[in-house]
Amino acid sequence: MDTSNPAILVNGNLLPTHVRKRVRTVIQVLNSDRGSVIGKSTDDQQLVIKGSPPSTPLTKFVEVIGIADSDKSIQAEIWTNFGDNFDASSFNQLCQLANGEYQHLFL
Amino acid sequence: MSINLTPNSIAAINGGDLNLKPLVQVLDIKQIGTSQERYRLLISDSVSTHHAMLATQLNDRVKTGRVKKGSVVQLIDYMCSDVQNRRIVVVLNMETIVLDCDIIGNPKLGDMTAQKTVSNLNSAQPGRSVYDNRGNIQSFRPAFNAQNPGSNNMQGLQTNPLLQSQGMQGSRPMLMVPNGSNGVLRSATGKNNNNTQTYAPTVQPAYQPPPSYRNQGPIMKNEAPARVIPISALNPYQGRWAIKARVTAKGDLRRYNNAKGDGKVFSFDLLDSDGGEIRATCFNAVVDRFYDVIEVGRVYLISKGGLKPAQKNFNHLKNEWEIFLEAASTVDLCPEEDGGSIPQQQFDFKPISEIESAENNSILDIIGIVISVKPSVPILRKNGMETQRRTVGMKDSSGRSVELTLWGDFCNKEGQNLQELVDSEMFPVLAVKAGKVSDFTGKSVGTISSTQLFINPDIPEAHVLSDWFARIGQNSAAVSISRDVVPSGSKNEIRKTVSQIKEEGLGRSDKPDWVTVKATITYFKLDSFCYPACPLMIGDRQCNKKATRSGTRWVCDRCSQEFDECDYRYLLQFQIQDHTGLAWVTAFQESGEEIMGYPAKEVYQLKHEAQDEARLSDVFRSRVFYPYLFRLKIKEEMYADETKVKITVVRADKIDYSSETRHMLDTISRFRRY
């Protein structure tokens, strides 16, 4: 497992605290365009994912890993389809735990 | 005849006479001392007064009101010492003869509030002794004592709602000893009615009673009625007592059969104005006397019962004693005015958040808003009887919710009532008295036979709660302390890890333990994974007993029949592991098929007929390292001489990641608290 470039698990609220850092999050795709995708974070915030999505069609939920370039957008490097069934609230709680009490377990 | 105190006893005591055992009157009681509680009495012999210190072992006499200002007491044991040029008398033992009494005589008073006492003497001359069977109620009512300091509580008694009015006197004619001369008279006059005292020497030292009030023949059994005392003061060494209390609960009439034959018993709970509670029990003939007399909510005067230690298993009231009513016991209904200060019911509510830390099987009272009611389900009990069970969800302002389990009759009566209220969105307040804490799934509360439920009771706590609910509670989430697992499976799931099975010694008790474990299959025992089973039907179920070969056919012991083809059923033995440890478990047909994905017969054929070892091991290898949510039945069983703990897989569910995640998040949040 390549741990050389860890990404911080974030949701909409946590993204601003990690600007210019490598982050990962799961978004629900709202709108997909050339060059960017508008997605809804697991805590109902709108995020812009820049970069080129993969050639395969995006499923409803997508995980993106990349650099946060502002508090509402991510320059994505890796895109992973997470399918259409995804428990957003559990992921959201995971983000909170990973950045809160249990931060030391994640990075 | 008035009570005469022992004349000049003060002088005698001061002179060194320690054997006098005089009758004196307590004019004043003052608490002295900051670090240690000491009481100083001002005692009078009707002529002079003196201070006396009360020995600390008698402190509770004052605190429970067995001695108060105006009481006539007999000093039984006392000593004198000289301190700083003053003679200090210390009272080591005394007996209260009369609790409330006018100032007797005209003692030369000292520097105190006793001054006021003189002014408050009313029409009842101190000299008159009139019968009073109430004597000294509510001596623990400092309120009116303060208003009428030392005034013999005349007015106090008059205003005291608990005081028995003539009604009581009327019902106790036997207690009058109408003696021509000046024995115990009943005062029926309006002037003074029953507010003045008589002497009712309730306790006498064995020897020489002071002659002053022995003016009527030999000492006979004391016919005077007992004094009403607070329930909290009851004890078996008390001597005569009477309590006035309201019935808060009436038990059922129960019949039993033991070595001595048949019997019947019933109990009822009592509450007095002090908040003291005690249970009273009657057996056999006594039941007949009182069962119909006792009604919940009425106030009774009860006397001449026995006192024995309370049976903590059944009696959850806060009292170490229980009353046993006997043939000589008396139970008299009191008019409601007298019970004005006795509450209908006494609760000691705990917030729902405290239930979580309460001990299993402890008894407590709770109050909360009912937010959900499930329908009744019939439950088969251990003794084969069927009963109803109904779960009710309650929440309170502590931000927690709990499940209340109603059993039996509660399901139909209160349960139905609650259901209707919740359905029409009028979420009611429910007060539970004497519910039992259970830790079956998380913590929950269940009803027992002595539980009482009150829907929308008219008590302050209920009003506060419904107010909270209307403003905040309706919309706030409450954390449930009653569920261990998000209900993905059945409601009674207890989650354990593999190591906990051994650590906690599950399966060792009489009944098997049922737990849920999330674990991964790590190894299958390939030798015998199934057995030949009898396919014949017994009733509507297959026999499934192991069939034995007989020639080319099979025979079953149970059915005593032969058949050509047998069924193959799984008897899978495999190892499961989680992050804590590993265990061997057995799965039968249903769960076996779930795990293997193939019917047992196919796998059997693969092994024995096709002899395809490669494919066989492939099949098993493909099933290993899969995680499941196992429902396990754990029981200790005897094999030859040794006992082994056997674990059976009753169900093997594939993991539903979403609900499993929620369960883990829930567990994490609980973990956080510690």
UniProtKB/TrEMBL annotation, chain A:
Gene3D superfamilies: Nucleic acid-binding proteins. One of its GO terms (molecular function) is DNA binding. It is found in: Nucleus. One of its GO terms (cellular component) is nuclear lumen. Pfam families: Rep_fac-A_3. Keywords: Nucleus. One of its GO terms (biological process) is DNA recombination. The keyword Aminoacyl-tRNA synthetase does not apply. It comes from the Eukaryota. Its main location: nucleus. InterPro entries: NA-bd_OB-fold (IPR012340), Rfa2 (IPR013970). PANTHER family: REPLICATION PROTEIN A 14 KDA SUBUNIT A-RELATED. Belongs to the replication factor A protein 3 family. This is Replication protein A 14 kDa subunit B-like.
From TrEMBL, chain B:
InterPro entries: Euk_RPA1_DBD_C, NA-bd_OB-fold, NA-bd_OB_tRNA, Rep_factor-A_C, Rep_factor-A_N, REPA_OB_2, Rfa1. Residues 5-98 form the Replication factor-A protein 1 N-terminal domain. GO terms for molecular function: damaged DNA binding; single-stranded telomeric DNA binding; zinc ion binding. Residues 352-456 form the Replication protein A OB domain. Keywords: DNA damage, DNA recombination, DNA repair, DNA replication, DNA-binding, Metal-binding, Nucleus, Zinc, Zinc-finger. Its main location: nucleus. Residues 243-322 form the OB domain. It is found in: Nucleus. One of its GO terms (biological process) is double-strand break repair via homologous recombination. CDD domains: RPA1_DBD_A (cd04474), RPA1_DBD_B (cd04475), RPA1_DBD_C (cd04476), RPA1N (cd04477). It holds the Pfam family Rep-A_N. GO terms for cellular component: DNA replication factor A complex. Residues 514-664 form the Replication factor A C-terminal domain. Belongs to the replication factor A protein 1 family. Component of the replication protein A complex (RPA) required for DNA recombination, repair and replication. The activity of RPA is mediated by single-stranded DNA binding and protein interactions. Probably involved in repair of double-strand DNA breaks (DSBs) induced by genotoxic stresses. Heterotrimer of RPA1, RPA2 and RPA3 (canonical replication protein A complex). This is Replication protein A subunit.
